[in-house]
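User: For a teaching handout, I'd like to show students what a predicted protein-ligand complex looks like in C-alpha cell form. I'll give you the sequence and the SMILES for flavin mononucleotide. Please answer with just the structure.
Assistant: Understood, here is the input followed by the structure.
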Amino acid sequence: MDAREYRSILGRFVTGVTVMTVQTADGQRAGVTANSFNTVSLDPPLILWSLALKAPSLTLFRQSDHFGVNILAEHQQDVAMSFARPAEDKFAGVDTLHGDHGMPLISGAMAHLECRVAHRYPGGDHEIIVGEILRMTSSEATPLVFHAGNFAKVA
Ligand SMILES: Cc1cc2nc3c(=O)[nH]c(=O)nc-3n(C[C@H](O)[C@H](O)[C@H](O)COP(=O)(O)O)c2cc1C
C-alpha cells in the first residue's frame, strides 16, 4: 500500500468540514478540525468520526462522555485552519455558545450536534468515536467543503 496514493485517492472524496469540541469536568477545552465525520444510523441517531492516536487532544476527548460537532459554514475557513494545528488555546478569539450538555459550540457554524459518546472503537492509527445525537440546531448557511487538500465552495 502506497501512502501517497492512498492520500491522493481518498483525499478526492469530497467532504464537509467539522470542528469537534469537548469540555472536561474541570473546564479544559479542546477542538479538532475533522472531515472523517459521517452519519451511521437514523434510529438511534448515530454519527461517527475518527481522531488520530497521536493527536494531543485525544486525552481530553477520552475524559468526556459528550462532545459537540460543529459543521462549518463556508465563511469559516480560518476556524478550520486554527483548529487543525496544536495550540495552547485554540478558542482564543473564537465566539462560542454553551451547549445544553456543557460542550463549547462555535458561533456561526452551519449546524451544531450535541452528542453523547455511544461507542469507541480501535481504528488503526485512529480512535473511532461514535456519538448519539442528543440535540441539534442549524442555520441556512452554506457549508464549507474540503477536496484534494483544499477548501472549496458548493457550486
Ligand atoms: C480539513 C481537515 C480535516 C481533518 N480531519 C481530521 C480527522 O478526521 N481526524 C484527525 O485526527 N485529524 C484530522 N485533521 C487534522 C487535525 O485537525 C490536526 O491534527 C489537529 O492538530 C488535531 O488537534 P490537536 O493537535 O489539538 O490534537 C484534519 C485537518 C484538516 C485541515
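For the handout, you might add this sentence: Residues 17, 32-36, 49-52, 55-57, 80, 84-86, 146 surround flavin mononucleotide (CB under 6 Å).
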